[in-house]
Amino acid sequence: MLALRARATSSRALSAARRFTTSARAQLDEPPKPPRPIDDSTSALDYKTSHKVRPPPLPKMDLPRSRSAEEAVTNILYNTPPPSLQPFKKHVLNCLVQNEPGVLSRVSGILAGRGFNIDSLVVCSTEIRDLSRMCIVISGQDGVVEQARRQLEDLVPVWAVLDYTETRTISRELLLVKVSILGPEYLEDQLAGGPSHEPRAAHAEHTKLAREMALARNFEESAHPAAPAAPTARAPLTPSEALRQRHQHLASLHVLASQFGARIVDVSENSVIVEMSGKTSRVEAFLGLVKPFGIIESARTGLMAMPRTPIAGLAEDDDVVAEEGAAVDASLLPPG
What we know:
Layout: H1 2-29, H2 41-50, H3 69-78, E1 89-98, H4 103-113, E2 120-125, E3 131-140, H5 142-153, E4 158-163, E5 169-180, H6 187-191, H7 208-223, H8 239-259, E6 263-267, E7 271-278, H9 280-290, E8 295-300, E9 304-307, H10 317-325
Antiparallel strand pairs: 1-3, 1-4, 2-3, 5-7, 5-8, 5-9, 6-7
């Protein structure tokens, strides 16, 4: 009996060891898998369900007065329908979405379905691995934009959509612009010069026939000195003239960039690249000032916005402006 029990115990231990070895080998043969995401799309849906509050009513729209049947028929027959009296203005929407494929197409699809043209769109991941942030700039009426905002917020992978239109924010936009330092008259030749932007005109190759035609034209002009001279091709710059123009334009661009807080990040033989970060109005003003030099190409990132944090105990800037515009008591002023 003891021998049979010992034999049964050893067989069970041997089978357990074989199963452990097989499972360990199977774990070693499996390829490594990426870590599971902390959250998925339904996490945003659960968050909105648990924090569900009744949204405020939609903003009132200034509709025209009610009309009589005669006025309505006359308008249908002879006039166009009366448009809404609300003005169009720029709206900045900040979307917090799940970091997964397909979210951008769903958001842009809803805006496109409502007829919005997206002025700028900036998307990037945040410090949280499963959360991305979108900054969308669109133009429209308050009521229509609010309806689109609520429709975006109803999407499953969207956590929240905030409207920063009436919020005090810090907004910035990045600009990279490549400017010619030879002058605007050589811009077309630089665009035809390839990646190096070397001035290269289409008629730059002087063949024997071209030289003979130029000689014949000069002979005809010498025979008729009173006749107006035909427009000739622009003579290429000498090395000294090109060096002088590059130096003058580069110095002017450096002074202009320093006034706008920009900096020159690349200098080549015939062009420079300027980097600037600022408000949209300052970016457009800077582009308008460097346009006379000759813009070869430019790239803008779009608007990024973040709300400002109020400081307790300090008055708002609007109150300060109102106080400055108020009348001043003359009795409080110093004599003289």
